[in-house]
Specification:
The chain is of the alpha+beta class. The chain has a domain of about 130 residues: 4'-phosphopantetheinyl transferase domain (Ribosomal Protein L22, Chain A, Alpha-Beta Complex). It has six helices and seven strands; from the N terminus they run αααβββββαααββ. The strands form three sheets. It has a three-stranded antiparallel beta sheet, with helices on one face. α2 packs antiparallel against α3. Keywords: Transferase. Belongs to the P-Pant transferase superfamily. Gsp/Sfp/HetI/AcpT family. InterPro entries: 4-PPantetheinyl_Trfase_dom, 4-PPantetheinyl_Trfase_dom_sf, P-Pant_transferase_sf. It comes from Streptomyces achromogenes. This is 4'-phosphopantetheinyl transferase superfamily protein.
């Protein structure tokens, strides 16, 4: 999903009729804290889309979707994986956005998704020391021109997995191997690369060793789309 490129010309996406009625107080506060109009537009668009999608599954209006946080698996605090409370059958979801592009994953089991813009060589050099030793070795074997794309794909896998298990980046990036060798990745999870688009990489992590093949749909969404506020 891509935010409307004209959103940067909109004074405030939160002022769009109906938007404030759909997002909850925490989402409105987070959106208002984003200084760059493009960042705010993407945040608002992606959260409206998430609520609309979850509402369709739950058969309730987007504004009535309740979002909570599960306990953190590391410390037990209220900042674990986002969830919809009390939804039989289970409904799990994950949301990621980066530089104009958003990705939403929905599954019947715990799921994590991540989208990353391909960085410059300097970012790769700065972040590589935090990786798993085997991941660093893989990057070192690549020609310089191939490293940014490989790093972005690796990092997308890593964040998707960490979101899936509920820790996020509170768990050290070096703790788990998410490199090219699928046999050495964390047991019990399937981590899949998604098609690249517009200078971005993306990945999805799903609990289980034989989940269905991810179904990917590309959806251009405008912040002001009326169907997002139903």
């Amino acid at each position: 999903m891509r935010a409307d490129p004209d959103a940067r010309a909109t004074p405030d996406p939160l002022a769009t009729p109906g938007v404030r009625d759909v997002l909850d107080a925490a989402e409105r506060k987070r959106a208002a804290s984003l200084r760059r109009p493009a960042d705010r537009a993407l945040y608002v668009a992606s959260h409206l889309a998430l609520r609309t999608l979850l509402g369709a599954y739950l058969r309730v209006p987007a504004r009535e979707v309740a979002l909570v946080r599960e306990p953190c698996p590391g410390c037990g605090g209220p900042h674990g994986r986002p969830a919809v409370p009390g939804t039989p059958p289970p409904l799990h979801f994950s949301l990621s956005h980066s530089h104009g592009l958003a990705l939403i994953g929905v599954a019947a089991v715990p799921v994590g998704v991540d989208v990353q813009r391909v960085p410059g060589p300097g970012t790769v050099d700065a972040c590589a020391p935090s990786l798993h030793p085997a991941e660093r070795a893989e990057l070192d074997r690549l020609p310089p021109g191939a490293r940014p794309g490989a790093f972005a794909q690796l990092w997308a896998r890593k964040e998707a997995y960490l979101k899936g298990i509920g820790t996020g980046l509170a768990r050290p990036a070096s703790a788990d191997y998410l490199g090219a060798d699928t046999r050495a990745r964390p047991h019990g999870w399937t981590v899949t690369d998604l098609p690249r688009a517009d200078g971005h990489t993306a990945a999805v992590a799903v609990l289980g060793t034989a989940p269905p093949v991810p179904c990917v749909r590309r959806l251009p969404v405008r912040v002001s789309s009326p169907h997002l506020t139903d």
